[in-house]
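FAQ

Q: What does a record look like?
A: Structure on top, sequence underneath. For example:
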C-alpha cells in the first residue's frame, strides 16, 4: 500500500515551541514517515503508512498533547469560531484593564482616573477576573505543555503574570500598599491583543489560497438529450457537455466541441493576453470566457482539474519547510527551558548574591519570563514563505516547496534548453522570396506549388510548409511524387514539374540560381532552414523555415543577466545555427550539438566548479536534466503542463516567469534574513536587559506581545513589493 499524505488543521498552538513539540511527537509514531507542522498556517502535513497507523490515531496523539486536530476540509468554521472567541476574550480583558490604563496615566501627572481605581482591593477584584478568566488560556496551555514534558510561551506568560499577581496579593494580605496588579492585567491584555493581530496578519498571508478557491464555479449549464439545465458543478461527470456563455467562468476542464471565443487565463497563468479558443482546443476551469459562447465536453473535474492541482500544489508548498527553518526549529525547541533556567538564575543572583529585596528579585524574574519570546524566530521563515509562494502563484509560478525557493536564490548559472523553451519548439514559415517566374507572381502562387508538391512528404519541414499552405490556399494532390534522398522532392502539380528542396537538388536538375546569395546568406546566418523551389526547370522562389524565438525570451535573458546570472543555451542544433539564435537572444555561452546525456554532463560540469545550477526546460524531454540540476524549472506550453515535472513549474510559456521566480526567491530570503536578525536581536537584547533590572515587566510584556506581529508584518511586505524595482 502506498504512503498516504494528509493535511490537518491544528488549534491551540501559541508559539514555535508548540509546533516543534507536535512535529517531534508525531514523527516518533510507528508508521509515520514524515511530519511538518507550520505555525503560520496552523496546519500539519503528515505522510504515513495506512497499514501501520490510521489518521485517527495521529489525531488522537496530537489531542493527547493538548492541541486540537481536524482534517483540513472541516477547519474554516472551527478556525473562525476560535478567532471570534479570542476577540471576545480580548475585549473582556481590555474593558477590565481600562481602569489600570487610566491609573497609570495618573502616575504621570495626568488626572485621568477616579481615585477608587487606586484602591488595592478594587484592583485585586479586576485583576483576578483578568488573570483567571482572560488569562485562563495561558494556564491551560502551560498545563498541557508541562504534562507533555515540554515548555512553551504559555508557561512563560503564566509564570510571569502569576508572579506579579500573587506577589501583589501577598502584599495586600501583609497590609502593604505597593501592588503590581496593573502589570499582570495589562500584560495579559497586550498578549491577547498581540495574538489577535498576529492571527489576523497570518490570515492575510493565506490570501492566495482563498483567491484560488474562489475561482471554483458552483453552477454549470449542462446539456442532456438536447435540453439545458443548471446543475451544481459537483454533479458533473467526465464526458458531460456544458455550455459556457460570454462573461461566464469555465466550470471544469474540457475540450471545445463547438463555438469560438477568447478566454482569459491570467488567473492561472499570469499571462494577460487572452487565448483564442475554437473546436478541439482545451479550456480550464476557473478561466473567464470573454466573447462567444462555447460548448465543451468535460475532461477533468474536482481535484484532478488544473485548478485543483494548483490549489493542492500551493497548499503543500506553503506548508513545507525551507532548510533555513531547521536552525530556527532547533533554537525554539530548547528556548523556553533555557529561559526558565535564566529566570531561576536571575532570582537567585538578585536575592541571594546581591541581597536585593524579594520584590526586586521577583519583578526582575517576572520580566525575564515575560520578555522572552520564541515566536518571532518560529514565524520568520513560514510567514515569508507563505506570502512569497503565494505571490509567485499569482504570476503563474509554482514552487514545490520552501526548499526549492531557498535553493533558487543560491544559484548563479541558468542552463536553458533552446527548443520549446527559448523557442516555440515548432518550426514555421518565416520568410518568402519570389524569383522571376511567369507562373509565380505572388506569395500564394509559390506556397500553392510548395504545399502541393510536399503533400505526400513525411519530412518535418515538409509538414510545416504543407500546414502553412493549407491555411493560405487550397492545395492539390500531386499527380506524380518522388523523394530525392538528402535533397528534397520532385512532384508534378497541375501538369508542372516542381522541385522543392536544398540547393543541391536544383543544381542536380540544372536549374540556374542567380542573385540570391545575399538573401540566403542572411537567412542561414540567422539559423533558418532554406528551401529552394523551381517550377518547370526555372527557379520560382525560396522559403525560409525556422523555430521562432518566443517574444519574451530576449527580455527574460537580459533580465537574468542583470540579476547576475550566467545564461547558457543548450541545443542539439549545429554550432552555426545555435550561435545565430544565441546572438538574437543576447546569450554569450552556447553548448551546441548536444545529446540528452550531454545536458547532464553540462550540469555536472558547472556544479563541479562550485556553481549552483538552475535548469530550464519543457518538463518532459528534459526531465533527467531537470532532476540533476540544483533547481529544475519546467516551462509549460499551456496550462495542462504536469505540475510535478520539476522543482518549479511555469504554467504559461512566458519566460519572464523564470525571472519572477528568481526575484521572488531572492526577495523572500531577504525578508527571512531580516526577520531572523530582528528575532535574534530582540531576544539577545531584551533578556539581558530584563535580567539586569533595566526593563520593567510591563515594557517586557508589551514588546513580547508585538514581537511576533512585527515578523508577520515584515513578511506581508512581500504582498505589496514590486520585485522588478528591488535591487539584489
Amino acid at each position: 500500500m502506498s504512503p498516504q499524505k494528509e493535511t490537518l488543521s491544528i488549534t491551540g498552538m501559541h508559539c514555535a515551541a508548540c509546533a516543534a513539540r507536535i512535529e517531534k511527537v508525531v514523527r516518533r509514531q510507528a508508521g509515520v514517515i514524515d511530519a511538518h507542522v507550520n505555525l503560520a498556517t496552523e496546519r500539519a502535513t503528515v505522510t504515513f503508512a495506512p497499514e501501520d497507523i490510521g489518521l485517527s490515531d495521529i489525531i488522537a496523539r496530537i489531542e493527547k498533547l493538548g492541541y486540537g486536530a481536524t482534517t483540513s476540509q472541516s477547519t474554516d468554521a472551527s478556525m473562525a469560531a476560535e478567532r471570534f472567541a479570542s476577540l471576545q476574550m480580548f475585549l473582556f480583558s481590555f474593558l477590565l484593564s481600562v481602569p489600570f490604563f487610566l491609573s497609570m496615566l495618573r502616575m504621570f501627572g495626568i488626572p485621568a482616573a477616579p481615585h477608587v481605581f487606586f484602591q488595592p482591593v478594587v484592583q485585586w477584584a479586576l485583576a483576578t477576573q483578568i488573570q483567571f478568566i482572560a488569562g485562563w488560556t495561558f494556564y491551560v496551555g502551560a498545563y498541557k505543555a508541562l504534562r507533555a514534558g515540554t515548555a512553551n510561551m504559555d508557561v512563560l506568560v503564566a509564570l510571569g503574570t502569576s508572579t506579579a499577581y500573587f506577589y501583589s496579593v501577598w502584599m495586600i494580605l501583609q497590609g502593604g500598599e505597593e501592588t503590581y496588579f496593573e502589570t499582570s492585567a495589562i500584560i495579559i491584555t497586550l498578549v491577547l491583543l498581540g495574538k489577535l493581530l498576529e492571527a489576523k496578519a497570518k490570515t492575510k498571508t493565506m490570501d492566495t489560497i482563498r483567491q484560488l478557491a474562489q475561482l471554483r464555479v458552483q453552477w454549470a449549464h449542462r446539456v442532456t438529450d438536447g435540453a439545458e439545465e443548471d446543475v451544481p458543478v459537483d454533479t458533473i461527470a467526465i464526458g458531460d457537455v456544458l455550455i459556457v456563455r460570454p462573461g461566464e467562468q469555465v466550470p471544469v476542464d474540457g475540450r471545445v466541441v463547438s463555438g469560438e471565443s477568447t478566454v482569459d487565463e491570467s488567473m492561472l497563468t499570469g499571462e494577460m493576453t487572452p487565448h483564442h479558443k475554437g473546436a478541439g482546443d482545451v479550456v480550464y476551469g476557473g478561466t473567464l470566457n470573454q466573447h462567444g459562447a462555447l460548448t465543451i465536453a468535460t475532461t477533468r473535474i474536482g481535484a484532478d482539474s488544473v485548478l485543483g492541482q494548483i490549489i493542492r500544489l500551493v497548499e503543500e508548498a506553503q506548508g513545507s519547510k525551507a532548510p533555513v527553518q531547521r536552525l530556527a526549529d532547533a533554537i525554539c525547541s530548547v528556548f523556553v527551558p533555557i529561559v526558565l533556567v535564566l529566570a531561576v538564575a536571575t532570582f537567585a543572583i538578585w536575592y541571594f548574591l546581591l541581597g536585593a529585596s524579594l520584590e526586586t528579585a521577583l519583578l526582575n524574574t517576572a520580566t525575564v519570563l515575560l520578555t522572552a519570546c520564541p515566536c518571532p524566530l518560529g514565524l520568520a521563515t513560514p510567514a515569508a514563505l507563505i506570502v512569497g509562494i503565494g505571490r509567485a502563484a499569482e504570476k503563474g509560478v509554482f514552487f514545490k516547496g520552501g526548499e526549492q525557493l531557498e535553493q533558487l536564490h543560491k544559484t548563479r548559472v541558468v542552463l536553458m534548453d533552446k527548443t520549446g523553451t527559448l523557442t516555440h519548439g515548432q518550426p514555421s514559415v518565416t520568410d518568402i522570396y519570389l524569383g522571376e517566374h511567369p507562373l509565380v507572381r505572388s506569395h500564394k502562387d509559390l506556397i500553392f506549388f510548395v504545399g502541393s508538391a510536399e503533400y505526400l512528404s513525411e519530412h518535418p519541414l515538409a509538414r510545416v510548409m504543407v500546414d502553412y499552405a493549407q491555411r493560405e490556399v487550397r492545395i492539390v494532390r500531386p499527380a506524380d511524387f518522388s523523394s530525392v534522398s538528402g535533397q528534397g522532392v520532385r512532384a508534378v502539380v497541375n501538369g508542372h514539374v516542381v522541385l522543392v528542396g536544398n540547393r543541391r537538388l536544383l543544381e542536380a536538375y540544372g536549374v540556374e540560381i542567380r542573385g540570391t546569395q545575399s538573401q540566403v546568406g542572411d537567412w542561414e546566418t540567422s539559423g533558418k532552414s532554406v528551401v529552394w523551389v523551381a517550377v518547370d526547370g526555372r527557379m520560382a522562389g525560396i522559403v525560409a523555415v525556422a523555430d521562432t524565438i518566443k517574444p519574451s525570451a530576449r527580455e527574460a535573458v537580459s533580465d537574468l543577466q542583470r540579476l547576475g546570472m550566467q545564461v547558457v543555451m543548450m541545443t542539439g542544433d549545429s554550432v552555426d545555427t545555435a550561435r545565430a539564435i544565441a546572438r538574437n537572444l543576447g546569450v554569450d555561452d552556447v553548448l551546441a550539438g548536444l545529446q540528452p546525456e550531454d545536458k547532464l554532463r553540462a550540469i555536472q560540469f558547472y556544479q563541479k566548479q562550485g556553481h549552483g545550477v538552475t535548469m530550464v526546460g519543457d518538463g518532459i524531454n528534459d526531465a533527467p536534466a531537470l532532476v540533476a540540476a540544483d533547481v529544475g524549472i519546467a516551462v509549460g506550453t499551456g496550462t495542462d503542463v504536469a505540475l510535478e515535472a520539476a522543482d518549479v513549474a511555469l504554467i504559461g510559456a512566458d519566460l519572464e516567469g523564470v525571472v519572477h521566480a528568481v526575484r521572488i526567491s531572492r526577495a523572500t530570503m531577504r525578508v527571512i534574513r531580516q526577520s531572523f536578525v530582528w528575532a535574534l536581536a530582540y531576544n539577545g537584547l531584551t533578556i539581558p536587559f530584563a535580567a539586569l533590572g533595566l526593563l520593567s515587566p510591563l515594557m517586557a510584556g508589551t514588546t513580547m506581545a508585538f514581537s511576533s506581529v512585527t515578523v508577520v508584518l515584515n513578511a506581508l511586505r512581500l504582498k505589496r513589493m514590486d520585485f522588478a524595482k528591488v535591487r539584489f
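Q: Is there anything notable about this one?
A: Residues 81-218 form one domain.
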